[in-house]
Amino acid sequence: MGLPDGAAEARAQGWRTLAALHARIEDELERALQKQHGLSVSEYSVLDVLARQDDYHLRMNQLSNAVVLSQSATTRLVNRLEDRKLLQRYLCPTDRRGIYTEVTEAGRELLDQAQPTHDAVLTSALEHAAELPELSPLVTALGKLPLTV
Amino acid sequence: MGLPDGAAEARAQGWRTLAALHARIEDELERALQKQHGLSVSEYSVLDVLARQDDYHLRMNQLSNAVVLSQSATTRLVNRLEDRKLLQRYLCPTDRRGIYTEVTEAGRELLDQAQPTHDAVLTSALEHAAELPELSPLVTALGKLPLTV
DNA sequence: ACTTCATGCTTGCATGCGCAATCATAGCGC
DNA sequence: GCGCTATGATTGCGCATGCAAGCATGAAGT
């Protein structure tokens, strides 16, 4: 692929490291959020993403992209959250195919409660991972990522 | 948490970036491996991990850890691969509770076929991700990870 | 040897996921 | 307005996963 040969193995190893770190963190997040707030990581992500939008709403499509899930999974995810009143759907006025999703007040409250848990688990998971020699370089690299302005 | 306050949001953002990159890569890998070799990412990982062991075998438990899956998922994953003759189980002679798994010749052949696909997809996925401004820093960071000796 | 507890793997069950098919609305050519 | 295709979301279905319970083997105490 234009790049020297040994690079393939290097990329593969980088990917394994990334995947391992991701899996560990997600595992811990999943358990903690589920246990303490009844939220899966995907559900938390949806609320988080929506709350971070300036106008608090997104279309299903954009949501799928943001959480990297299939359309169908997104539909059902939104269903679950809507059933729990954490979320509202409403038709896009200008294009009646589109559907907007918006966090409700209850949703924001739950998110506010869950955020500290999320951050704490994340911190501890990262600290924990930093102790594993094969993961620690990636952890420190993560810490040095530039923040979007 | 011992660390200054704003760090929490920085960590959260790092995590979001990591998760997004991971999801995209895994998505592409999944599709390509499934289509071209009938393997899921987990299945590929198992074969890959086993083949990378010096003596080509691991216990179920170690395998669960290596691929970060639950015990039950590992059992069924190994079942599937065993049914396809890509893998063999055999009892641990010294502790009859333990079960070793070992790649078969067919398994190694399939892995050899799949590896180029895996590497190619990985490369293109990384190149693709490097074009997204929010992911590119992590991609370059990945490339700079030290290799284990 | 017998009980008790720990360890390793497997099974029952419920759930979330992706794919493909489907339905509804929009946009375009005529 | 009428077809035709494109786009957005939802539903049917099969499958992989996690949790918790279960079963088998090992280890330790008596």
Automatic annotation (TrEMBL), chains A, B:
The family database entries (PROSITE patterns) matched by this protein are listed as: HTH_MARR_2
Q: Record's Pfam families?
A: MarR_2
InterPro entries, per database record: HTH_MarR-typ (IPR000835), MarR/SlyA-like (IPR039422), WH-like_DNA-bd_sf (IPR036388), WH_DNA-bd_sf (IPR036390)
Q: Where is the HTH marR-type domain?
A: 11-147
Q: Which domain of life is it from?
A: Bacteria
**Which Gene Ontology BP terms does the record give?**
response to stress
| GO molecular function per UniProt | DNA-binding transcription factor activity
Among PANTHER family, the record links this protein to:
MARR FAMILY REGULATORY PROTEIN, TRANSCRIPTIONAL REGULATOR, MARR FAMILY
What's the protein called, per UniProt? MarR family transcriptional regulator
Say which species the protein is native to: Kribbella soli
Q: What phylogenetic lineage does the species belong to?
A: Bacteria, Bacillati, Actinomycetota, Actinomycetes, Propionibacteriales
